[in-house]
C-alpha cells in the first residue's frame, strides 16, 4: 500500500495521486484524501504575537479562565491515552524506548506551540481509509508513520527535505533521495535512493524478497537432507538392518551434495507470486516459517527414509536372500545356517570359564542371490567354505559386479572337503548353548576362514548399501531441483545454468565413486550392474516425485496464508 503525504493543497495532491495511480480509477478522490489537520484535536487558536506580548497579569487571568481548564483536561486525556497505549502494546513500548521522537511524547514549555494529536487508535482508523494527505507538517508525517507502525505494518518513508527527517527516522525504513535530498534527510534515513526513481524501490523490494526466499530454500533444503539422513541411520539401527550409508561416504556426499550444489539457489529466479503477497511478519521471525516446517521439511524427513530403506532392503535381499543385520554377520550357534537362521556360521573356542570366544570371520556361508540383482529373478544357492588365506590376498575368479568367486570357495577346494566335522565339533558353553568349536584348540593362524570382503553375505550387503548410497546421492540432487521453485520442477529444470552444471558434476562424481576401482574400494562401494543401478535411481526419482506431490499441498497452504 502506498500513502502520499505532501504539503501541497488538497486539490493538487489529488491530481498527482490520480496520475501515479495512488488513487485507483473509479474511486472518489474526496473519499481517499484528507487534510492533515484532521489528525489534530480541534481547539481554538490564539495569535502567537499577542500571546507572547501579554503582561504577567494578563497571563495569570488567561490561565485562570475556562480555556486553560480545557487545555489541561485535554492534555491529561492525551497523557492517559498515551500511557494506556504503550502499556498495552509491548512492541510499541519497546520502540518508544529506542526512539524518543513521537507525537505523544511529554511536552516541554518550548513545544507548547505544536498541535495536539488524536490518540494513535483514532489516527490509525483515519489512516486506514485515506491514501492522500495534504497540507502536512513534519509532525503530521510522524503521526501517520507511527499509526501505521502501530497497526502492524512494515513502513517505509521516502523524503528529500529537512521537514521529512523526523518521519524518516521514525519509519522502519527511511529512504532519502540521493540527488535532490538534503544532507539532513540522508543522515536521518536508512537507505539512499541514488537515482531518485521510485521504481528502484520496487526493484529493490523484489530483489530483497528473492534473496530472502532463496535463503529460506537453502536453509530448508540443508535441514531436510541432514535430518532425513539421520532418520535413515536411526531407522537402520531400529530395524537391525545394514547401514544405508557409511562414515566416509557421508563426508563425501556432504561435500558434493550438501555444500556445493545448494549454492545454485543464489542464482535462482524469483517466484511468480513474489510481489503479490503481503510483507512477512517480523514478530518472532525465523528463516524457516511454520508452513515450511510442516509442509516441506517434515514430509521430506519421512519420505526419504522410506525410499532409501526400501532400496536398501531390495538390494540386500536380492543379493543375499537375507535382510537382518545379525543374520548377515553370522551366528556361532550350531547348525544356524542349516536351520535358515543366519547366512554365515562362526566358530570359536571355550575358555577355562566356559565362555565362548568367537572368531572375527565366518567359516561357512550360504546365500540366495537373485539372478541379475532383480528382486523378481530366480534365486540361486551359493555356498562358500573357508580357506587358508593371507590378509588382502587376491581371490582368483572374483567378479566385482556380481560378487561371484567361481569355485574358489567351493567345499571340494577347501580344507572342509571332508565336511565341517573334520575341523570343528559341537560344544556347549556355560549357558547351555550349542556352538561350533575348533578341534584341539586350533590356532587362529591356521584356521580356514572366509575373508570379510569376499564372502557372499558381506559382499551382498555391500552391494545393497551401494544401491542405497546411489538413492541418497542421486535423490538429493533431484530433491534440490524440487526445492528450487514452488511450481512443478519440470518447468524449471534448465532455467538455472548453475544448477545444471552442479547436476552434471554431481552425476559425474557419483559414477566416479561407484565405478572408479581405487575410489570405490576406499569408500566401501561396489560397482552396480544395469539392473541394480536402475532400481536405485528409480527410488531416487520416486523421492523427487513424492516431493512434488507434497508441494501441491504446500502451495495451497501458502496461498491460504498469503490471502
Short description:
The protein is mainly α and 563 residues long. The chain has helices at residues 10-19, 29-32, 48-53, 56-63, 66-88, 90-98, 120-129, 138-150, 165-170, 183-188, 198-239, 247-259, 290-320, 325-329, 456-484, 497-515, 517-523, 530-561, and strands at 4-5, 33-35, 132-134, 156-159, 173-177, 191-193, 344-345, 348-350, 356-358, 364-367, 382-385, 424-428, 434-438. The protein is 48% helix and 8% strand.
**Helical stretch count?**
18
Strand-pairing-aware structural class: mainly alpha
Write out the strand line-up for the largest beta sheet, numbering strands in chain order.
1-3-2
**N→C terminal distance:** 15 Å
Helix content range? 40-55%
Q: For the residues shown, what is the average pLDDT?
A: 86
What proportion of the residues form beta strands (DSSP E)? 5-15%
Radius of gyration: 39 Å
**Which oligomeric state applies?**
single chain
Amino acid at each position: 500500500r502506498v500513502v502520499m503525504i505532501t504539503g501541497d493543497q488538497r486539490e493538487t495532491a489529488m491530481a498527482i495521486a490520480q496520475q501515479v495511480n495512488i488513487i485507483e480509477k473509479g474511486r472518489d478522490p474526496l473519499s481517499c484524501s484528507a487534510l492533515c489537520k484532521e489528525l489534530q484535536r480541534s481547539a481554538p487558536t490564539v495569535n502567537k504575537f499577542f500571546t507572547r506580548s501579554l503582561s504577567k497579569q494578563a497571563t495569570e487571568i488567561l490561565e485562570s479562565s475556562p480555556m486553560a481548564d480545557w487545555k489541561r483536561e485535554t492534555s491529561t486525556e492525551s497523557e492517559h491515552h498515551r500511557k494506556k497505549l504503550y502499556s498495552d502494546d509491548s512492541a510499541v513500548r519497546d520502540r518508544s524506548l529506542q526512539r524518543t521522537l513521537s507525537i505523544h511524547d511529554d511536552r516541554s514549555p518550548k513545544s507548547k506551540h505544536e498541535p495536539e494529536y488524536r490518540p494513535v487508535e483514532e489516527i490509525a482508523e483515519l489512516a486506514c481509509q485515506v491514501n492522500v494527505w495534504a497540507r502536512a507538517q513534519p509532525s503530521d508525517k510522524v503521526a501517520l508513520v507511527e499509526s501505521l507502525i502501530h497497526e502492524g505494518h512494515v513502513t517505509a518513508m521516502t523524503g528529500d527535505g529537512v521537514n521529512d527527517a523526523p518521519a524518516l527516522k521514525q519509519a522502519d525504513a527511511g529512504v532519502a533521495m540521493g540527488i535532490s535530498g538534503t544532507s539532513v534527510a540522508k543522515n536521518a534515513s536508512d537507505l539512499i535512493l541514488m537515482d531518485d526513481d521510485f521504481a528502484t524501490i520496487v526493484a529493490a523490494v523484489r530483489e530483497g524478497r528473492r534473496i530472502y526466499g532463496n535463503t529460506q530454500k537453502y536453509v530448508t533444503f540443508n535441514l531436510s537432507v541432514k535430518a532425513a539422513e539421520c532418520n535413515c541411520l536411526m531407522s537402520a539401527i531400529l530395524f537391525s538392518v545394514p547401514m544405508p550409508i557409511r562414515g566416509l561416504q557421508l563426508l563425501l556426499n556432504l561435500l558434493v551434495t550438501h555444500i556445493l550444489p545448494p549454492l545454485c539457489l543464489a542464482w535462482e529466479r524469483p517466484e511468480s507470486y513474489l510481489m503479490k503477497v503481503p510483507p512477512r511478519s517480523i514478530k518472532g521471525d525465523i528463516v524457516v516459517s511454520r508452513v515450511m516446517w510442516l509442509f516441506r521439511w517434515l514430509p521430506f524427513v519421512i519420505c526419504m527414509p522410506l525410499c532409501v530403506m526400501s532400496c536398501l532392503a531390495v538390494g540386500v535381499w536380492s543379493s543375499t536372500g537375507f535382510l537382518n543385520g545379525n543374520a548377515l554377520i553370522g551366528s556361532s550357534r550350531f547348525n544356524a545356517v542349516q536351520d535358515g537362521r543366519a547366512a554365515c556360521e562362526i566358530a570359536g573356542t571355550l575358555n577355562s570359564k566356559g565362555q565362548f570366544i568367537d572368531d572375527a570371520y565366518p567359516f561357512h556361508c550360504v546365500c540366495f542371490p537373485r539372478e541379475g540383482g532383480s528382486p523378481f529373478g530366480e534365486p540361486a544357492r551359493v555356498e562358500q567354505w573357508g580357506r587358508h588365506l593371507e590378509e588382502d590376498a587376491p581371490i582368483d575368479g572374483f567378479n566385482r559386479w556380481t560378487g561371484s568367486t567361481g569355485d574358489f570357495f567351493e567345499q571340494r577346494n577347501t580344507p572342509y572337503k571332508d565336511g565341517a566335522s573334520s575341523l570343528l565339533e559341537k560344544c556347549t558353553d556355560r549357558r547351555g548353548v550349542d556352538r561350533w568349536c575348533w578341534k584341539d584348540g586350533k590356532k587362529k593362524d591356521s584356521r580356514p576362514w572366509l575373508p570379510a570382503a569376499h564372502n557372499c553375505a558381506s559382499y551382498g550387503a555391500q552391494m545393497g548399501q551401494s544401491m542405497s548410497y546411489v538413492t541418497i546421492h542421486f535423490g538429493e540432487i533431484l530433491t534440490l531441483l524440487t526445492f528450487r521453485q514452488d511450481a512443478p520442477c519440470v518447468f524449471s529444470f534448465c532455467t538455472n545454468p548453475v544448477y545444471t552444471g552442479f547436476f552434471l558434476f554431481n552425476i559425474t562424481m557419483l559414477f566416479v565413486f561407484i565405478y572408479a576401482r581405487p575410489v570405490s574400494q576406499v569408500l566401501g562401494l561396489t560397482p552396480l550392474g544395469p539392473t541394480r543401478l536402475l532400481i536405485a535411481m528409480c527410488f531416487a526419482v520416486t523421492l523427487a516425485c513424492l516431493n512434488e506431490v507434497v508441494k501441491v499441498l504446500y502451495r495451497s497452504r501458502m496461498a491460504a496464508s498469503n490471502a
